[in-house]
Protein 1
Amino acid sequence: MSSPWSTPPPKIPSFDFRGVKGLPSNLIAGGAAAIAGLVILLSTYFTIDEGERGVILHWGAVVGEAGPGLHFKMPIITTIEKISVQVQKEAFEKVGDLDTRLQAYSRDQQPATIAMAVNYHVTDPKAVYSQYGSLANMKQRIINSRAYEQMKTVFGQFDAADAIQKRALLNTEVFNAIRKSVSGPVVIDSVQIEDITFSQQYETAVELRMQAIVKQQQAEADKQKRIIDADASAYEVKAASDAKAHQIEVQGKAEAGAIQARGDALRNNPGLPTLVAAEKWNGVLPTTMVPGNTVPFVNVQK
């Protein structure tokens, strides 16, 4: 059996540019010169898009800056580095297996993992290139390092519970700290703390504490309800007693008034009892009488 290397490799055809059959060598040289001239001509201009600035370099030295539009330059000598001046976002987050979230400790020594976004924009493209060489290098050396440093400092001034309950205040103080610490050809536009995750032990403790608080509040609510119900029952009993007392008082006054009226009538009309008895007499004389008594309504005068 023959080795696979025993077969010689195929020959690569070679060309002799000194002359091509049917074409004179001077024509080929002229074509090459035309192509070279076209390349040089195309390298004499460049365009800058909106949202970018062009840093103009002569032999690698910064000599100026170009705005959006069409510009001309010297071939070979001049090169252009494009820098974005639009708002950029640096996200400290977890995406798949890549986790760039920030690690920090609260004032009560609770470890936390923080997802945060920092928005910024370049104000001096020439300085970005001169000092850092590229936008990516500037982001790594200024934005990332200072954002992490200031986040840890500010977060350490908050207890874990306050970091959750006062998220807006924490966000504002982190933004102010990062913006103040970043100096150079860039401005921090905004900072958003998107998520704060504590350890599982702390999360469990918080959940149990919240459950205890809910139970305590429910017990207090039940207690207040019982007090209100008892007060209502007592009020009903008191209202019924007051109503009964008022009824007795009114009835007593009415009876006293009636008695007084009868007394006044008797004083003013001594014969009234006899009249009332006569009005109620059925006309039948009693069959028996106590000795010495007189017949009712019969007044015998001599």
Protein 2
Amino acid sequence: MSTKNSGLYPDYDVMAHADQWDDLTRKIVIQRLNPPVAFTALNNWEQKMIAKVSEHLAYDDRNEIIAWIVSYFDSQLAEEIGESERKPNTPPQRQLICDGLKAIDHWARMIGGQGFLESDTEVQFQIFTTLQLGKLSAFDQWQSSLQKDLFTKLAGMVIKAYYSHPTVWSEIGYGGPAYPRGYVRVELGLTDPWEAKAKED
């Protein structure tokens, strides 16, 4: 099960060190390479929307990574535990995201005459660029502030999921969970044997 890459650390594969993690951690990380296909919070259309949103916000369309991000969204939206914090007048994240996906589809129809998934890339980019600024046409509750909240929530969750995928870990040279092995060589410029070594020019 390899996650080697052609980036700055082409010879580094974080999964090669999985045997050094505790059993629970190893199980959790491996599952990200093969996320569950059963969804409890997102319907089929919402899954496709999250996938397309993730491709744009992460600027990555690799199927295995997008599948993990969609699975992450589903697990988070199915969670009964409340959010750590939320701005006043901002709906709970499940409502914000699910209603937000419908709003994004509505904006796509306003701009290009067809749904978001059917729209070309230029229209999709336009929606996110304008959504970030809170300057899409307001309708119902979707005023400027809630548009920004939606973008912030989507971007935050996409990036959190993206940078928790082992393939991305390998690409950025992240060694994965330090427990229980820990770091030994903490002096400036030194690395432990299991850490990534950058490609030399």
Protein 3
Amino acid sequence: MLTSHRSGSHQDIRQFLESVIREDSKQGLFKVHRGVFTDREILRLEQELIFQHSWLYLGHNSEVARPNDFITRKVAGHPLLLTRDRDGKLHAYFNTCSHRGAMVCREPKGQRRAFYCSYHGWAYNDLGHLIDMPGRDSMAPGLIENGEMNLKEVPRLAEHHGFIFVCFDPEIPSLETYLAEAGDVLKLMSEHGPNGMEIVGGTHEYGLGANWKLIQENSADAYHTSTTHASYLEYVNARDGARPKVDPAVSAGWARDLGNGHAIIESEGAMPWGRPSARWVAGWGEAARAEIDEIREELIQRLGEKRGRFIALGDRNTLIFPNLVVNDTLAITVRTFYPADVDRVDVTGWALAPVGESASSRDRRMRNFVEFFGPAGFATPDDVEMLELCQEGYRNQTAYEWNDISRGMLKEVPAKSDELQMRVFWRQWQNMMLRNQED
């Protein structure tokens, strides 16, 4: 295990990292050593070499739509404050007072022109400038005016079609370059509604006893659907009996490498569940059919036949390296997850929806979102149990050391139930662990 090399040489660590993935393209074999899910030194290196050098999702522009709107989030262990200033410009600050370090904002969201540290009363305006403090005359001349005590901004902040990202590495390539083809997928998500998109009020937050990378694998794993989520498929097929039964694990669909560790699985019209934008199912009743048809026609008129139908009838699970998932299936789910320990991960999820959609369409969307993706829905408890069982099973590394991720290796176009998307993640994971270690 790598932990045993912590006090060893740089070369020892590099050799271990090079050995944790076995890939043989001729034999169609891809394996990952189970130690990457259990070794705390691996986790320490991930936090240092991956999370500090990747673009990470912070929020959506709809959450800070008006001047002086703000949200607070923790990103890769950093408490952050995202604000839109009086002139409409976005800022991401480290949420810590320049005096003695207390957080300057404790609320999850709101609207403010100034932020006050509750420890000693230091005040900052919406531009992050220190503007006042008790006993200001005790400070030497120039200490406030030179700007060194202003709130510190995160080195990089960028937005892509409403999705806001930050990075702690000032030298990282642009967000557009980093996203590669995943940027096109986020653009597609932004086009669901003619008036733009918004995060629906409310947040899902939960934790589970598994390594964070298992969430990334699971979030675009069509292979497990028919077994792990059998109860949901039985429910859908019973409710929507008029629709042919479909096994998502073997149904039509494909997987694509989007570049830079990002990947997607997608299909068009094959899945058994309904989509509020815009695939009708019998369980929604005849009254909903006309509205669903109108939504689909609006998409086609606005975006063209091919793109409009693909949004309306398709399903997409998108992985953006290292820890953002945007699933456009029963509803649009935006999910991030960060390791709390080597065998503990904290998950946060939001629903994304078209601005101004009807109350009936929003109701169908949120019912789908909560019913399947919610912490108490059909899918999430199933997934939590399976991932915790994996983590527990890794205690048997002396008996079997490797996970197999070989499905579809020899296919020209892997199916969505194959594992190309996971191999894409693991290649980028290893690349960053080795490259950034050298830096």
